[in-house]
Amino acid sequence: MKPQRTPWISYAVILLGSVLMVFPFLDMVFSSFKSASEYASLRYSLLPQTFVFDNYKLAFEQLKLAMLFKNSLLRSVSITLLVLLTSSLAGYVLAKLKFPGKQLIFRFILATMMFPAFLFFIPNYYITVHFPLAGGNDLFGAGGSGGLAASQLGLIVPFAVSGFGIFLMRQFIMGIEDAYIEAARIDGARELRIFAQLVLPMTAPVLATLAIFEFINSWNEFIWALLMNSVNTDLATLPVGIQMLKSHLDPTLTQPLVMAGLVIATVPVLLAFILLQKHYVRGMMNSGLK
Which CATH number is 245's domain given? Predict the structure, then answer.
């Protein structure tokens, strides 16, 4: 009988990794309660000497946090719902329907995942600004004051479809037995009803996984939101507003306020992950992703 190995080394490694991962977050939280003079001090301390709760009040006032939070939440929820809809529909079509060119279309979708996202920002920007009959534009996309970029649609529409989301949904739906779908077709159900009432409920775990990915990516996205902010400053999101405050004012005075804003910006992401954690783990396992 082989002697059992002592697992304390594994536990120590896991504990050390956990501390290294959690420490920056704890530093952000405690820094949000420090005064400006204490934060600028050369002597570092994790815990504040005096908890300054006014930082959160000032963050709401100087960062216009209510407007930034509303824009970020509206954008992230809208993009997440649109991506879930388009990805599940496209995934079902590519997984279960037969038509010429299906594999070519799927390979083209996979190819879009190989390019960095910023390569599409310039063409997307021109399409958004010169979108026909939007923001005062004429039929040819001229003469307006920003097109879709002047409204919330400019933050949402370019991200309504996700190549990764389509790939993830296709891989999951391919694992659903064809017998269920064939039985529904024999009973006279049309494809849309089969998708909505049969296939979609089975994809709840992977939908939750995709929802977490898209919500976090949309919430943290910065470059495109900054471009839209250049057209309409009322469209600023939390990452843009916090970065603008950090860039234009004295960081030694505003850094605790920035930390308070970052703490508030982190709360929705943590809540989304906590609420969907079980489905997330199940979806990752069932989709074959490691």
Answer: 1.10.3720.10
